[in-house]
Amino acid sequence: MTTERSDNVSEAQIAVHWREEEYYQPPAAFVGQANASDPAILDRFAEDRFPECFKEYADLLDWDHYWHTTLDTSEAPFWKWFVGGRLNACHNCVDRHLATRPNQAAMIWVPEPEDADPVAITYRELWVRVNEFAALLRDFAGVKAGDRVTFHLPMVPELPVAMLACARLGAIHSEVFGGFSGTACGERIADSGSDVLITMDGYYRNGELIDHKIKADEACEAAAKHGHEVGTVLIWRRHPGRYASDRPMVDGRDHFVDDLLPDYRGQRVAPESMPAEAPLFLMYTSGTTGRPKGCQHSTGGYLAYVTGTSKYYQDIHPDDTYWCAADIGWITGHSYIVYGPLSLGTTTVLYEGVPTYPDPGRLWRIAERLGVTTFHTAPTTIRMLRKLGPDEPTKYHYRFKHMTTVGEPIEPEVWRWYHQVVGKGEAVVVDTWWQTETGGFMGTTLPALQPMKPGSCGPGALGIYPVIYDEVGEVVEAGSGKAGNICIRNPWPGIFQTIWGQPERFKQIYYERYNRDPASTDWHDWPYLAGDGAVEAADGYFRILGRIDDVINVAGHRLGTKELESAALTVDEIAEAAAVPVMDELRGRAVEMYVSLKPGMTASPAVQDGVTAAIEREIGKIARPTQVWIVPDMPKTRSGKIMRRVIAGISNFADVGDITTLANPEIVADIRHQVQREK
Ligand code: PRX
């Protein structure tokens, strides 16, 4: 079994073990056109070529100055890649394509409602927009290299434009997923120290124009509570000239971008030549404590890694129409909607809305209309569309050559529907295991060279050497059938540099567990702890079981149990709270909250609703629990720690393990009776 501290909860603990599956071979038509079809590439990335093998990725970029040191380990585990090199990420994603493909669509944006036409933005138009917005940011908002700028933008082209404009100036962007609450956004603004917030007044979802400006006000308020004032809020209007919110504009703070932009028409901003190690962006994610972690990604290493993996694993060619149907507010969107695809000069599709509105044929209609060749989504979406519209793909005349899945384990039968029905048996399926922290793919298959195996992500990516360790740091051998903690033995260019402002926590969370010598500057002594349980088959393919820490992956969204619990504790009546994962047919996992009340308080539906409302306010609707159980007491250790493992066992009708050491073992039967009776 995977390791977990006795008091915490582990998704891996409730994972379903499915049997080994047969291989599927890639279609010959795919292999014939693949970017990586010569097995020699595996030799070029063999372990004895590390770290120089990654030069191949970095050489896909334009450098202002070439680097002198590929990997500097002197401040382990703060790895530095391509030291001495200078480049600009915006130049690499935009300017360098102007000579060869100025009139090719860089992006196609598919808005809601469905009768609105898709909007194509050529590389030249993108260049113009990015320059003008960068001029506005610099001259109006005072943004300069190294400043942090927070975005709370939905899926609109203004988001990549804002990212690239910051990158052009050397400023560090921090996009907060649009579905997060204003409070969550404010906390991230304060943590990153952003003086500027960029947002939009509203956006469409399920046919409704949603007021988003309200969240900007809440975010500024929440940031102020953390002692941080936001000086400037730049608000794009979803329909320029027509305000979609009834929230007042705050004098001196709030400004409509479409009112300001005419003053910057025709302006050009030279791309700032940045050191390879300069941070490009922050991406907040959940972890073991209530405070979100700002994962800091570099310019040179990150861009090299996402460009290389986009080329070989996404098999992106410039003339593809590539669609990663994720949200740019997550790392998947940063790496594989914006930076990787644009760096390779392809056409990247983004869409507003949801896969199921107005009906579960929407994605396939878009694919047909735009001639999408390469498609990328998450198991949750696949499961949902398989349930709601199992035959919808057959109604549309699109042809995918390549499909990706990301973010959660995919069940073999769901994989087969994706392959057979969505891919019409003609596309390769690439399962990609990775994380916000890793920047790009870690475990996956080279689509023309390594066969697919449903339910397994595959072996380590090029230049990545995963290993599974048991609790005491012994290697769990491939083919042993045993699960353990998956680690990466070596650094790679896409690895995040640190947790913004918390270097000690960075070291402790990711490297302390299996570190062999804290003083060592040899990377061999610093395995990276991914935080997932996994099994390695005899063929070297990994199957990911889920998180081993206090993180629950709901529909591919990573939620921290501590964040959920602190939100619940803001409700007056609540004394204690525990968030646990339960298996969910559609979303992989769902969250159930267990709460106990302060003395003298009475259980009621209003208290349950209060917990849900608090979670929505503090984190966002995505974190809404499926159940709030009010229990008389929590199972606890003698030292008073809540045994989430035991509660998760009850909620999942699974083994609760040894409870003899609990301070109050009798409560287990009471809770079981209460919960299982109602389920
Ligand atoms: O548990 C793993 C799961 O998602 C976690 C990372 O979440 P996040 O940082 O939000 O990034 C998601 C997109 C990369 C991992 O620790 N996960 C990610 N990809 C897979 C996966 N689990 C199984 N199979 C995958 N392909």
From TrEMBL:
GO MF annotations, alphabetized: acetate-CoA ligase activity; AMP binding; ATP binding
Keywords from the named record: Acetylation, ATP-binding, Ligase, Nucleotide-binding
Top EC group: ligase
InterPro entries, A to Z: Ac_CoA_lig, ACAS_N, AMP-bd_C, AMP-bd_C_sf, AMP-binding_CS, AMP-dep_synth/lig_dom, ANL_N_sf
Annotated ranges, domain Acetyl-coenzyme A synthetase N-terminal: 50-93
GO annotation, biological process: acetyl-CoA biosynthetic process from acetate
Database matches in Gene3D superfamilies: 3.30.300.30, N-terminal domain of ligase-like
SUPFAM superfamilies: Acetyl-CoA synthetase-like (SSF56801)
EC numbers on record: 6.2.1.1
AMP-binding enzyme C-terminal domain span: 563-641
Membrane-crossing segments per the record: none
AMP-dependent synthetase/ligase domain: residues covered: 95-496
Keyword Ligase included in the entry's annotation: yes
PANTHER family (alphabetical): ACETYL-COENZYME A SYNTHETASE, ACETYL-COENZYME A SYNTHETASE 1
Similarity comment: family membership: Belongs to the ATP-dependent AMP-binding enzyme family.
Official protein name in the record: Acetate--CoA ligase
Source organism: Actinocatenispora rupis
